[in-house]
């Protein structure tokens, strides 16, 4: 984007693997795909005011909101309601003594760390949508079971206490290998290069603002409404399943250029993802994305060849 093309070409050569030269077809194809996308981006360059007014070609506002929405759903899925008050929940709602509550909090943090590490292995194999939908389903189930366990705690404190703690651990395990990481990856992938900084800043601000809201009403909820507090987050997770399914396209195995094409105003991809839309849902790279890249490469090569020819003719005229 700064016209330092030779440095960019060398960076691509090094990135794609050892033993490659600048003239290697793989390097040249990647280079022309990127420069072709930059040409398209420059043709449709627009101010942030126009982005907010939705006058741009590449759906920048929609993409920014998807990134912010992912961070909002991460927090209102209930993670920090548990994170900050796990010991208090075990003492106030489950009825444990302080020592046991602290021990279980430490054990939970350890299992949470392991499940978060598992996400590194899952995120490329399963794709973003599968992890988001699966995580929300498991989190909803966990909160429902916690609500039921706490509601029935008086009938059999020990047995239902075990169920409540088990599903609290289950929630953390599900969150760690899904929503713990995916929203951060998704908000980086969904935004274009032109909106990357603004998109990342907006999404991160949304994350902290939503987290702040959740942590402010959590102590009151734990204290005053008991098991009903957990039903709130169960409902949030249930609603978010439909939000992700119908609004969030897959970004795994897509290049930045692929997503620019997907959100291009002329590509006719609707805001609501139809049930039969395999392109938006599949984790493998769509055929239409590969065809669009091949067209970009061919177009950019033709432009480069024309520029080279004109340059040679200018030299010949000077001589």
Number of strands: 0
Structural class: mainly alpha
CATH topology of the largest domain: Growth Hormone, Chain: A
Give the terminus-to-terminus CA distance.
33 Å
CATH-scheme architecture of the largest domain: Up-down Bundle
Number of domains: 2
Q: Overall mean pLDDT score?
A: 86
Uncertain regions spanning at least 5 consecutive residues: none
User: Considering DSSP H and I runs of 4 or more, what fraction of the residues is helical?
Assistant: over 70%
Percent of residues in beta strands? under 5%
CATH class of the largest domain: Mainly Alpha
Name the CATH homologous superfamily of the largest domain. Answer: MFS general substrate transporter like domains
In DSSP terms (H or I, runs of 4 or more residues), the helix count works out at 15
Rg (C-alpha, Å)? 25 Å
| Major sheet description | none
The succession of helices and strands, N to C, reads: HHHHHHHHHHHHHHH
Shape type: elongated
What does the oligomeric state look like here? single chain
Task: From the structure above, extract its key features.
2 domains, elongated, mainly alpha, 319 residues, Growth Hormone, Chain: A
Task: Describe this structure as you would to a colleague.
- This protein is mainly alpha-helical and 319 residues long.
- It contains 15 helices and no strands.
- The chain has helices spanning 5-16, 25-43, 48-52, 60-76, 79-83, 86-92, 98-126, 128-151, 157-176, 182-190, 196-224, 228-247, 256-263, 278-281, 287-318.
């Amino acid at each position: 984007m700064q016209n330092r093309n030779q440095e960019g070409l060398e960076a691509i050569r090094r990135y794609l693997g050892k033993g490659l030269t600048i003239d290697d077809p793989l390097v040249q194809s990647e280079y022309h795909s990127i420069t072709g996308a930059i040409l398209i981006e420059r043709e449709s360059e627009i101010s942030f005011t126009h982005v907010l007014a939705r006058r741009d070609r590449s759906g920048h506002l929609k993409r920014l909101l998807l990134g912010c929405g992912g961070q909002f759903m991460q927090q209102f899925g209930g993670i920090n309601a548990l994170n900050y008050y796990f010991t208090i929940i075990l003492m106030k709602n489950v009825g444990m003594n302080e020592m046991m509550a602290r021990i279980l909090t430490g054990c939970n943090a350890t299992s949470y760390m392991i499940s978060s590490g598992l996400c590194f292995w899952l995120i490329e194999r399963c794709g973003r949508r599968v992890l988001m939908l699966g995580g929300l389903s498991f989190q909803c189930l966990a909160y429902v079971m916690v609500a039921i366990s706490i509601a029935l705690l008086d009938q059999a404190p020990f047995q239902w206490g075990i169920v409540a703690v088990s599903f609290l651990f289950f929630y953390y395990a599900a969150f760690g290998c899904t929503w713990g990481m995916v929203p951060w990856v998704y908000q980086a992938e969904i935004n274009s290069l032109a909106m990357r900084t603004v998109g990342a800043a907006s999404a991160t601000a949304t994350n902290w603002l939503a987290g702040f809201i959740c942590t402010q009403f959590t102590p009151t909820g734990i204290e005053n409404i008991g098991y009903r507090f957990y039903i709130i987050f169960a409902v949030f997770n249930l609603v978010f399943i439909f939000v992700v399914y119908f609004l969030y396209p897959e970004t795994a195995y897509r290049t930045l250029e692929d997503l620019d094409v997907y959100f291009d105003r002329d590509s006719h991809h609707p805001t609501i993802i139809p049930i039969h839309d395999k392109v938006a849902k599949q984790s493998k790279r769509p055929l239409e994305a590969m065809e669009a890249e091949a067209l970009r490469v061919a177009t950019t090569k033709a432009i480069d060849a024309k520029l080279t020819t004109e340059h040679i003719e200018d030299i010949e005229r000077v001589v």
